[in-house]
Write a structure and sequence with these properties.
about 45 residues; mainly alpha; about 0% strand; rod-shaped; transmembrane helix
Amino acid sequence: MYWKSILLFLTWPVLIAVSLFLVQYVVKKYNDKLEHVKKKYEE
């Protein structure tokens, strides 16, 4: 039982880091798309 709590303790930061990374990735992709659309409209 003791090692399970350690595992949980180690898993949380990893999950948080991964979700933050995914959010940043999605935001970057979205921003790139937005810039592309803006350029299209400006022409």
